Amino acid sequence: MKLNEISDLPGATHSRKRLGRGIGSGSGKTAGRGVKGQKSRSGVAINGFEGGQMPLYRRLPKRGFTNIFAKDFSIVSVGRIQAAIDAGKLDASKDVDVDALKAAGIARRSKDGVRLLGDGELTAKITVTVAGASKSAVEKVEKAGGSVALPAVAAEA
Description:
alpha/beta, CATH 3.100.10.10, three-stranded parallel β-sheet, 11% strand
């Protein structure tokens, strides 16, 4: 296949409608734009303008805010860790921390740390060092005979 042989599938493109080409064409004179006014002219795009009526974005109340101090954690589930151990990507005998999770391809980037959630099942005995963990995740790790270490930095947040 060559670049000059590439083409769209039949029916993928529609031919452009030729506007303003006489009244016999069916779309002559005003070319489907109605008559007069701002919107019949070229170069007009009035997003959010509702013709003088109070626009929707001003009718609705403002609500909530974005916390600029919020921590953004990478989320890892207990089940994903178990799957990585079963696949041989993660060594259960060593400490499971951010670097080990990155090396195994479970956490792509650490952001403000990794938070462990309790989705899935865990059978391997592991020691996990993460920035945060849910109660269910801690229970599952301890039930399997492991432990979860949360550094002091995460305890303050």
